[in-house]
Amino acid sequence: MPITYTSGEQIEVYRFSIPVTVGVPLLALFLQAFVPRRFPFFSIFDLPLLVTIFFGMARRNPISGLFTGAAIGLAQDMLGAYPIGIYGIAKTVVGYFASSLGAKLDVENAGARFLVTLGFYLVHAAVYFTVARGMVNMTLNWSWSRGIEAGLANAFLGVGLYYLLDKFKQRT
Amino acid sequence: MESVLGRYRNLTILVGVLFLQVLGLAVQVKRSGDAESTRLIRIWAVDTITPFERVLVWAQNGSSNLWHNYFFLRGVRAENRQLKQQIEQMRLDQVRLSEDAGQAHRLQQLLAFKEQTIAKTVPAQVIGSSGSDLSRSIYIDKGSNEGIAPDMAVITAGGIVGKVLRVYPSTSLVLMINDQTSGVGAMLEKSRLQGVLKGTPDGAVILERVMADEKVSPGDTVLSSGGDQIFPKGLPVGTVSKVSPGREMFLNIQVRPAADLSRLEEVLVVTEKQEQTAVVENGARVRAADILAQRLPSVPDKPVAAAAAVGAPGSSKVGAPGQSTSAAAKTQIPVTGSAKPGSVGVQQVAAPSTAAASTAKVASGASAVAPATAKPASTGRAPDVDGSAEPKASQAPKKTVPKVAGDSTASGGSPNAVGSNSASLPAKSSTVQPKLPVSQPNPQPPATDEDPH
Predict the structure, then answer these.
(1) Which residue in B64, B203, B382, B432 has its CB near the most CB atoms, within 10 A?
(2) Contact B201 A141 (CB under 8 A)
(3) 3-state SS, residue B418
(4) Which residue has the higher pLDDT, B451 or A87?
(5) Are B262 and B333 in contact (CB under 8 A)?
(6) Which of A33, A83, A131 sits opposite B129 (nearest CB)?
(7) What is the pLDDT of residue A6?
(8) CB-based contact A138 B21, cutoff 8 Å
(9) Contact indicator for A28, A52 with CB cutoff of 8 Å
(10) Spatial CB neighbours of B131, under 8 Å, sequence gap ≥ 6
C-alpha cells in the first residue's frame, strides 16, 4: 500500500497563490451548480469536497484546512435549499482531518488518494446526515448503495482532479 | 490552562469553529417560522454565482438555437408532417374531452363545487442547480421583480416540477419534488387514492401513505390532489413505475415523474390561481361529429330535382305527410355514408355505421321528411345532404338529374352521380343547416341559380 508513515520534517508542505486559493474553490462551486443542469449525472460528484480534501492534504496545516473547509462548505450551503451550516460543519471536519492526515501520511500517489477520498466522502456524508437529522430535524434517508456509488465516483474523479491541481502547487 | 490550549490549539480552534456553526444552525432552526434570517447572506452568494450562469446559459442557448434553427434541419419536414397529424388527432381528442369536461362542469355546478384553476403563469428558464446530490433544487431566472413569491407551484407542460422555496430579486430557488424534504399531495387517477409524494436519496420519487391493501399497479397515472394548497388539483405528476410492500402496512410506490426533472430548461411558475365555481358554457356545444364533418369531404348542395325525388310519394319511410317537421328539421340525423342518392326517394335514415358517417349532418327533412305529395319538379331545392350518397341509376329519375352548381366535373359529368361523394369537394355544405319548410305540401323552391330548370 503506498500510504507511508513519515515524520513531519520529511513531508513537503505546499502553498498556493491567492488566485488559486480563491479561484479554484469558486470554480468548483460554480461548476457544481451549473454543470448538473446539462449533465444530471454530474450531481453525484462533490467538487467542493474534493477541493477541500486536496487543499487540506497539500497544505498539511489543520487550521488552514478547517477554515478552508468551513468557507467552502458555508458557500455551498448558501447556494442550497437547506439551512446554512450543514455542509459547513461537514467540510470543516473533513478539512481538519485531511490536513491532519496529510501531515502524518504521504498521500501523493493515486492509490492513496483514491482511498483517502473514498474515506473522507463517507465521513463527510456521515457528519452531514448526523447534523441534518440530529440538529435540523430533517427527514433525510441514507442509502448505502447510493453512498458507496457516489464515494467511488468521487474517488475516481478526485484522483484525476488532484493530478491537475498538483500543477498549482508551490514549494514553501 | 494556556499550555493546554497551546497543546491542543488545532483541536480547540476546530471545536470553536464547529460551535459557531452549530450556533448559527440553531438560530436558523429556531427562526424557521420567521422571515429568513440568512436572506442577506444568501442573496450575496446567489448574486455572485448567477450572473455567470446567466451568461453561460444565454451563450449556450444562442449557439444551440443557431445550430438547430438554421443549420441542422434534417428531418424537419417529416417531423412537421408527423406533428400535423398529431395535431389533427389531438383536436379530435380535445373535442371529445371538452364534452366530458363540460359534463363534469355541469355536475360540479349542480353540486356547487369550487375548483382551483391556474390563472396566470410566468415562464422561467433554469439557470443552475443547488449542485448537490443530497438536495434537489434548481435556480430559475425569475424572481420577486417578476412577481414570484415563495410556495408558488412550478410546472412544465409535462407535469409538476416543484415549488418556489426562496425568492431573490432576479432569481428564485425551486425545491423539486424529488427532494427528500419535499412533500406533494398526490392521488392516483383511477382509484382516487391519496398519498404524499416525496423524494428519495437517489433522486427518485415515491408515493407514501397508501395502505398495503389497496390495489395499485404500474402504469397508473398520478395526479396532484390539491391537498398541499400549492399545486392545483389534477395536474399530472407521473406514472407508477413499481409497487412493493413498504413499512408499517403502507405500500412502497415508485413514481416516474411526468416532467423530466433531470433535464429541465424552461418551466412555468404559477403566479396566480383562481378558485371559482364551475361555470357551464351555455353556448352551442361542438361535437366531435361536427368537427369531423367539417373536415371530411362531402357532397355539394343538392339540387332541386334530387329533392323532388326525395319527396316522391310513398318513398319516404321516415316522414309522412302532415307530420310535423319543425322538430325534425332541427334534428340532425346522421345517415350512413353509403346511402345512395339514387335511392333518395326511398332513403332510409340509418344509424351511423362509422365515425365518418356519423358525422354527416343531414337535414332530416331532406328526403325522409319531405311530403309525400311533393312532385319532383315542383319541389323546392333539396336541403343539403352530406355523406357519400351515390346515385343508383336504376332508381334515380332522369328528371331529377340536376346540374351540380358550378361543378359538373365534380360528379364526373354523369347525372347519376349527383349525390356521389366527391372527395375533392369542400366540406362547406356539411355545416349548412336545413331550412326547407318540408312540412308544406308544395314547397316553393328558393330563388337559386342552381335550379336545373
Answers:
(1) B382
(2) yes
(3) coil
(4) A87
(5) no
(6) A33
(7) 44
(8) no
(9) no
(10) A29, A31, A32, A33, A34, A36, A43, A76, A79, A80
**Sign for the pseudo-dihedral over CA of B420, B426, B430, B433:** negative
Lowest mean pLDDT among A70-74, B21-25, B276-280, B392-396: B392-396
Round the average pLDDT of chain B to a whole number and report it: 68
- Asked if the model's pLDDT at residue B392 lies above 90, the reply is no
pTM assigned to the model: 0.62
Residue with cell 349532418: B361
Q: What are the angstrom distances between the C-alpha of B325 and each of A78, B311, B315, B442?
A: 78, 13, 16, 14
Q: What is the CATH number of domain B113-284?
A: 2.40.10.340
What size, in residues, is chain A?
A: 172
Contact A135 B181 (CB under 8 A): no
Q: Which residues of A touch B24 (CB under 8 A)?
A: 84-85
pLDDT of residue A87: 94
> How many angstroms separate the CA atoms of B123 and A53, rounded?
40
> A-chain residues within 8 Å CB-CB of B10?
62-63, 66, 96, 100
- CATH numeric code, A14-171: 1.10.1760
Here the cell at position A24 is 479554484
Q: Is the pLDDT of residue A19 over 70?
A: yes
The ipTM value here is 0.85
Q: Look at A43 and B25 and tell me if their CB atoms are within 8 Å.
A: no
Nearest CB neighbour to B52, from listed A30, A78, A135: A30
* Residue B160 cell numbers, joined: 409538476
Mean pLDDT of B49-65: 84
- Give the residue-averaged pLDDT of A110-117: 92
What Å distances lie between residue B382 and B19, B304, B407, B436, CA to CA? 94, 5, 17, 7
Phi then psi for residue B53, to 5 deg, are: -65, -40
Cross-chain Cβ contact B25/A83 below 8 Å: yes
